[in-house]
Amino acid sequence: MRNDSDFVIGIVAIIIPELQSKFIDLRRNTHRTMKQNPVKRALAQGEPQVGSWLAFGNIHTSRLMARVGFPWLTVDMEHSPIDWSTAAEMFGAIADAGCIPLARVPKGDHTHIKRVLDAGAMGIVVPMVNTVEEAKIAIAAAKYPPEGNRSVGGGLHVLNFDASPSDYYQNANDEILVVLQTESPEGVENAEEIYSLPGVDAIFIGPNDLRFQMRTPDGTFPTAEEHEAMMQRVLEMGNKTGTPVGLHVMSVDDIKKRLDEGWKFLALGSEMKAMVECAENWVQELDLKSSDEAMINY
């Protein structure tokens, strides 16, 4: 007579191959649809998109910020100590929450752009694009051939787009958001040519850098009126070329003002500013300390 263990082994021998067969068939018949980039599509249709900036490099903060309702968040790798591994974790946390993770790269070259996209960013923000050639280099680095020269590799990008590798490589060029920054008078002078290039999805002004780049040889800063006039030239050129343009602002009132003016791609502060500003307000309401100057400017 067979003992209990022999009986169990016999049942398992029958069931497991059957389950494996069904699982394999299920996988073969499953069609996975790659996520689209709603921010890129909204901008292409002229719809404003308001997001924010991440500078801490903290995964928990990123998860929380990705769930408050912003359609996109930019991980700032230009002016923060965020490293590649941390950035990849942040991109994943943001994407898992249904928010679009962007990366501001330190430099608009092939190496930096390739690495953030392979790590799972769904778009790039490229600083200090002053010439047509610099713009072309950045755009090409974000596109697979034949549109660009992005090399094939990595595995995290497919996770954030919920795609198979073949689907990602086939469709990534249509989903990666390419944002170029105009941050100097030279960039403004070359704006029409830059903004007219195929592959430019949006333009973004860094107001602080633009102001510093406008200083005269003796270090004199532009007046507020001169600075604003330069930014308005960017908006006018965006309207002329049909390119969405935006900038970084520090208050909800400024967001509303800029939306009324026609700006489309706007960043409101950062998680750092939100935390420090809230804490400073608490301290002032309690009369613990008076602060003459804001600690955080973005």
UniProtKB/TrEMBL annotation:
Superkingdom field: Bacteria
Matching InterPro entries: Aldolase/citrate-lyase_domain, HpcH-HpaI_aldolase, Pyrv/PenolPyrv_kinase-like_dom, Pyrv_kinase-like_dom_sf
Pfam families referenced in this protein's UniProt entry, alphabetically: HpcH_HpaI (PF03328)
Domain HpcH/HpaI aldolase/citrate lyase intervals: 51-276
UniProt GO cellular component terms: cytoplasm
Keywords from the UniProt entry: Lyase, Metal-binding
EC annotation from Swiss-Prot or TrEMBL: 4.1.2.20
Entry keyword annotation includes Signal: no
GO molecular function, one term: metal ion binding
Family the UniProt entry places it in: Belongs to the HpcH/HpaI aldolase family.
Protein name, per record: 5-keto-4-deoxy-D-glucarate aldolase
Lineage, broadest ranks: Bacteria, Pseudomonadati, Planctomycetota, Planctomycetia, Planctomycetales
